[in-house]
Specification:
Blueprint (H helix, E strand, L loop, with lengths): L3 H17 L3 E3 L8 E6 L8 E5 L5 H16 L1 H17 L5 H11 L7 H16 L3 H18 L10 H13 L4 H20 L8 H4 L20 H5 L7 H9 L3 H8 L6 E5 L2 E6 L1 H4 L5 E4 L10 H9 L9 H10 L12 H12 L4 H8 L16 H8 L4
Antiparallel strand pairs: 1-2, 2-3, 4-5, 5-6
Helix pairs in contact: 3-4, 5-6, 6-8, 11-16, 12-14, 16-17
Length: about 400
């Protein structure tokens, strides 16, 4: 016996599916995965049959294009009728228009139906497939977006977010005692997420991103403290079993992640001879720059470049952008040295850069050595031919 309830349920599902894909046909021009628009313009506009490939296999993109450009024309008559009905209802209710205005908003913003939860999943897939970011960066970006969505609600439509939502997000983060840096990072990442939605055609509203440009708690960052030159030896040897890593930092100005990557051959980073000079090679894949960066090994560091010392650094390496146990211990111990209460491992970069500049080394050459970011990327203009000058500059570090 046929279940009539099942037939009714199947017909309702089919009807709902047809409604969602109205005017959209997959594979109309031969490509089975590409969505196409197929519809007939109303007779009042000529009655022409329109067939156009949308060059996308993403149904949400196809729906967004349809809802933004096609639906307003095809439903003009019904929209006008709805507006007239709302007007009459407002008059009858003697001005109690709030409910009706929300209906009007739903009619006007019909193309903004993508929910934040679904949008976040698309963003994660895109980040992993197309962005080219490191795994740690992808996790940070997607976690920041997830933190914002947890407050705003997974079922909220992306295109309907208002300035009030932004204020609510800010106040929720503040009440959770998040730092000013964290709040600014969450807002910055979430705005990037909204810009991505707009660029991908998943959100038509031009105002949502601007709604999240609100006043945020000011970030007060202190400059990294320098290792006092008179305490350099003490700071370098404050953890007796872990001296090679701070020694490299002292005489190269490299970041700790770069040091560990070069010593453990992570993502193309290594220790090589380049143009006849022993160098740390920070690969462009690791640092996301235009080219590999070479930092020469200076004379004061050369005697310590043994296999055992390099192995010591490699064994303590953490290449997931988090502090290793050895680095944590170092940062605790170095602060116990007199006049070094604010010193950390990163202070060796400041030390190396300052010592070179005080010795008269050209500022641009210092930038090239330590890998400082620069708006004009001028420090990437140095060729391998300047390695001799770079090595001479590093030799000036006490």
């Amino acid at each position: 016996m046929t279940d009539t309830n099942l037939i009714h349920k199947d017909s309702e599902t089919l009807k709902s599916k047809k409604s969602k894909e109205k005017y959209l046909v997959k594979g109309y021009f031969g490509d089975p995965d590409t969505w196409c628009l197929v519809f007939r313009v109303p007779q009042r506009f000529g009655g022409k049959l329109i067939r156009q490939s949308l060059y996308t296999d993403d149904i949400e993109v196809a729906r967004s294009i349809r809802d933004k450009f096609i639906i307003p024309i095809l439903t003009e008559s019904s929209a006008i009728a709805a507006l007239e009905g709302i007007g009459k209802s407002i008059i009858q209710s003697q001005g109690a228009a709030l409910e009706h205005l929300s209906q009007l908003k739903n009619i006007i913003m019909a193309s903004e139906g993508l929910k934040l939860g679904d949008a976040h999943q698309k963003y994660i897939r895109w980040m992993k497939k197309n962005s080219g970011f490191r795994d740690g960066t992808i996790k940070k970006y997607t976690d920041d977006v997830a933190a914002a969505i947890e407050v705003l609600g997974k079922d909220r439509c992306a295109g309907m977010l208002s300035k009030e939502d932004a204020v609510r997000l800010r106040e929720k983060l503040k009440s959770a005692e998040k730092s000013a840096t964290t709040i600014n990072n969450v807002f910055s990442t979430f705005r990037g997420f909204l810009r991505w939605l707009k660029k991908e055609g998943l959100m038509a509203s031009p105002y949502v991103v601007d709604n999240f440009l609100i006043d945020l708690p000011p970030v007060r960052k202190e400059n990294t403290a320098i290792v006092p030159p008179s305490k350099a030896d003490d700071c370098m040897n404050c953890v007796k079993e872990w001296t090679m890593t701070p020694r490299i930092g002292r005489y190269t100005g490299m970041r700790i992640g770069e040091i560990m990557a070069c010593c453990s051959n992570y993502k193309g980073c290594k220790i090589v001879k380049h143009e006849g000079i022993l160098c740390f090679q920070v690969s462009k894949e690791f640092s996301k720059t235009h080219e590999d960066r070479y930092i020469p090994v200076c004379e004061k560091l050369m005697p310590f470049m043994t296999k055992a010392n390099i192995k010591e650094v490699a064994e303590s390496a953490r290449n997931d952008r988090t502090e290793s146990p050895a680095q944590k211990k170092y940062n605790r111990n170095v602060k116990k040295i007199e006049s070094c209460e604010k010193v950390s491992f990163h202070s060796w970069r400041v030390y190396a850069n300052t010592m070179m500049m005080e010795a008269g080394v050209d500022e641009l050459l210092c930038k090239r050595i330590v890998g400082h970011s620069d708006p004009s990327n001028v420090h990437y203009g140095y060729t391998a031919g300047r390695l001799e000058a770079m090595k001479a500059a590093l030799d000036k570090i006490p």
